[in-house]
Amino acid sequence: MLFLAQDADIAPLMPPATGAAAIPITSISLKPRETLPLGTGNGELFYLLTEGCIALTRYMCDGRRQICDIIGPGRMFGFAIQGESQCMAESMTYSTIERHGRRTAWASLPDEVGRMLNRQQSHALLLGRKTATERVATALVDLADQFGRRVKYTRGRHVDFPLFPTRSDLADWLGLTLETVSRCLHRLRRQRVIEFTRPELIRILDFEELERAAGLRA
Amino acid sequence: MLFLAQDADIAPLMPPATGAAAIPITSISLKPRETLPLGTGNGELFYLLTEGCIALTRYMCDGRRQICDIIGPGRMFGFAIQGESQCMAESMTYSTIERHGRRTAWASLPDEVGRMLNRQQSHALLLGRKTATERVATALVDLADQFGRRVKYTRGRHVDFPLFPTRSDLADWLGLTLETVSRCLHRLRRQRVIEFTRPELIRILDFEELERAAGLRA
DNA sequence: CGGATATTTGACTACACTCAAACTCCGTGG
DNA sequence: CCACGGAGTTTGAGTGTAGTCAAATATCCG
Predict the structure, then answer these.
(1) Contact residues on chain A for B22, CB-CB shorter than 8 A
(2) CB within 10 Å: which end of chain B, N or C, has fewer?
(3) With contact defined as beta carbons under 8 Å apart, do B162 and B201 qualify?
(4) Rounded CA gap, A106 and A108, in Å?
């Protein structure tokens, strides 16, 4: 199938010109708590997380931090289309990333950009209108989805997942303080919705109840 | 210039096939407080606001509302790429919108999508980490940018703009209550940063101070 | 003028924040 | 092996910012 572009200046999301030199796929390894600035993007570079966990963070001039998204394996980020994204990528654990150019990233870009936009809007709803417990519950639903493995037991289904972000990271994601996050997790545990013996290994006992606590169900 | 697409299924942000029937540009007029659902988008339809003011809203199942963005003339929205956007567009005043298909929207899509993503991330920072007064100040800076006309006076520069969202709309945008929004506006007025005699006509007296109050400057 | 809607202002409350201390979990080195 | 130290987490007590409820005022429009 053949497409004709009327204007060569509408670059960023355009398909790569067949003659242009392709940016090779290169692999990047990050240790926990390393940082990858995304500001330089000119619409040429995209990143695919193949393993680990990455946070997209923004900082205010006085140092306040907001985590815009927590990213799990299989997701793309760094759509620094036009201008700078003002976001940094921070690894929450050992992570590997593939750097792609337009040519190799092209096919998945629309879906990934759309997914990102949708997530940012859901997150605005969380930050603007949900209570502390609802926020924490919503976060757990999301992380279970991105990092969870379903485990079948004799009585019901559990979901286990590693909680890569610390309490402080969760706080910066959810617009709370780390103490409040800890208290909400405690509450959900006391209600037998989740359980954990180590703070970074979560088991969801009652997924429906968790979604209810997250404000996702009546 | 000629581009070759390897896969016809990577549709949404692809350039329109030259042979395909183009969706004509049609114009939509909205009265204040009308609603345009965006959920149906299949990556074929995009909207350009040519006049007025539109809010992108999300609702929780219990009715809580979050305004994800306030949109002024010249901006595009409705990138319901893959799946539904779960957002509605609500007019804040008399507005006219152009409905575009892929063919006519194509050139501006990358910039507009990037702008939207950037705004959503800034908004997350606002909702998660800014105080009430900072949020209101940030909103005024943004709205002045989208709706303001610079007016030169003998002493300094003022910016006047019509405030299309009500106090309640601002509250739903900023994650506050309408009373808090009103109190913050009052405070900024008492500090002579802004002034208004009618509640929907704002004049910014000291733009630098407003940006400082918004947490955008040291 | 009258009635509806939006805004302002006040008094009180509560949810989440701040500050502080204790506890757990690790890895390291004596 | 145990002691030590550091980072992260939990828990508690008290505070403060923004929310709630309510009433007064302003604005708009027939």
Answers:
(1) none
(2) C
(3) yes
(4) 6
At B56, which amino acid appears? Answer: L
Distance CA A84, CA A81 (A): 8
Find, in chain A, the residue whose alpha carbon is nearest to that of B62.
A218
For strand D, is any atom closer than 7 Å to the CB of A104? no
In 3D space, the residue among A149, A138, A144, A137 whose CA is nearest the CA of residue A188 turns out to be A137
**Residues constituting chain A:** 218
pLDDT 10s digits, B7-66: 433 444 555 556 556 778 899 999 999 999 886 656 678 999 999 999 999 999 999 999
| Proportion of chain A in helix, strand, coil states, percent, rounded to 5 | 35, 25, 40
Contact B113 A117 (CB under 8 A): yes
Q: Can you spell out the DSSP letters for B60-97?
A: -TTS-EEEEEEE-TT-EE----SS----EEEESSSEEE
Residue B171 tokens read as 């509250």
- Nearest-neighbour CA in chain A from B154: distance (Å): 33
Interface of A with B in 30-59 (CB under 8 A): 43, 56, 58
CB A162 within 8 A of CB A205: no
Q: Is B178 on the interface with A (CB under 8 A)?
A: no
Measure the CA–CA gap between B14 and B179, rounded to whole angstroms: 46
pTM above the 0.85 mark? Answer: yes
pLDDT digits (tens, 9 = 90+) for B124-176: 999 999 999 999 999 999 999 999 986 665 456 789 999 999 999 999 999 99
B16 touches strand D (CB under 7 A): no
What phi and psi, each to the nearest 5 degrees, are found at residue B193? Answer: -85, -35
Interchain proximity B12–A114, CB inside 8 Å: yes
User: CB–CB of A67/A127 below 8 Å?
Assistant: no
Q: Are A15 and A106 in contact (CB under 8 A)?
A: yes
Residues 6+ apart with CB under 8 A from B21: none
Closest CA to B90 of B112, B74, B70, B115: B70
Q: Which nucleotide is nearest to A169 (CA to C1')?
A: D8
